carbonic anhydrase
Amino acid sequence: MSTISRILDYNNTFVGQKEYQEFHTTKYPDKKLVILTCMDTRLLELLPKAMGLRNGDAKIIKNAGAVISHPFGSIMRSILVAIYELKAEEVCVIGHHGCGMVGLQSSSILEAAKKNGVSEERIDTLSNAGIDLSTWLTGFQCVAESVTNSVHLIKNHPLMPDQIAVHGMVIHPETGKLDLVVDGYASVNSENNEILSR
Ligand SMILES: [Zn+2]
């Protein structure tokens, strides 16, 4: 039986027995929080549980490494939608120790692509079209630094309102321990003090 068949079978029972009832909530995040984190499988249940989050508490955006590659890409758009359309008031970027994006080299992905039948010619065509595959497919060296960079990108985005606190954290993928690397309240408070002192 395929994975999808098993999922659909399970789903039949889940819906039939009304197991969804305990998850009822709305599309607005109760804790007014939007989280950008990594797609790592270890964080699937651990991250919300370690943060005390339940269904309906937060908007969670995931990708490899919790990275924003482009200020006008889909991750940044999702954060803006969460704030302007879904009433989120704080943003939290959460990287994790042992992330697969640490030290990731574009060459290893491109080698794997070639082994899987993607021709060198196709890769060259992309490069010739001006697509910088080496930057796009490269990870980062330090998770705390990557989180800090993403926090700054969000905080300084031209469409981001000043009063939104943007925090940075690193989570341990086994214990769920969170370390705060950027306290978003600090910059919001200093901006408020600046406004008051004018
Ligand atoms: Zn990761």
